Amino acid sequence: MPESFEMFRYLDHLRRRWPVIAVAVGVAVALALIAGSILPAQYTATARILIESPAAGDLRASMAVSPVYLDSLKSYAILASGDRLFADAVEHLHLRRSRSIEQMKNSVLKVTIPRSTKVLEVGATLPDPRQAQALAHYIAERTVALARDMALEADRDALADAQKQQDEARAQLKPSEAAPVNSAADSANAIRSTKTESLQLAIEAAQMHLQEIRSTAGYRAERLKIFDPGVVPERPSSPNIPLILLAAVLVAFTASLVYVTLEFNYRLEKSAAPRAVAPLARVKNLND
Fold this sequence. Notes:
The chain has 288 residues and is of the alpha+beta class. It has two domains: 17-39 and 239-257; 43-228, 2-Layer Sandwich (Bacterial polysaccharide co-polymerase-like). It contains nine helices and four strands, in the order ααβααααββααβα. The protein has helices at residues 2-16, 18-38, 67-72, 74-80, 83-93, 101-108, 129-178, 186-216, 241-287, and strands spanning 43-52, 109-112, 119-126, 223-228. A four-stranded antiparallel sheet has the order 2-3-1-4. A hairpin with a 6-residue loop joins β2 and β3. α2 runs antiparallel to α9, α5 crosses α7 and α7 (129-178) packs antiparallel against α8 (186-216).
């Protein structure tokens, strides 16, 4: 009974103190609207790149849908978010700089790969919507070009290594073929013949490897392609007025409710204090 009585008193206290909550929420909403109107508008443009799997038959092609392979695609996100690439984009587009490249990049550029996809999203946020779209598109184009150049360089290195192996095997084979055959030394001739055959096999293997690299050059790595260059955003991405208002209402309502509850507890304790003192006073009078 006392607990329900206290609950009724608390609800009655809330009813009488509702203007406090209403004023707090109203002030918070007004401040949120003022802040939203003062904050500069920011526009976000997004360009999307499709990461195509390597050619069929390649080992990585068989991993195209595995979590390990999808996780390896994060290297392209690191490539697109490089400081050097962002600095080149800022210089190319003549963007105004008021901070360091690192600080500006952290607030302007966002590169992500959505979960379980092979799509690279390049987002750029700037006060000018046209500049935001131009920056996102430029970063996407340069990322595709850098990935292609890296793949070509890797193919050239692989071709050079395969050609070197073939040349070294042929260089080792020439002395063996030029050595005179000694009919009296059968064991030496057998060893030389075995060595010659192994070198010939090595040359054939190196030649096959070289042909394989030449035939698969350009298809051994992922190929990046821009399939969505993005559009000039028409609505700002921030400040998000509805979200700011919702947060302001929740914070103001919670804070005012806590204040009213603490006020109720304080008044309850204050009113209960004389009741606790009264019995002590009666005991003292009886003793006297």
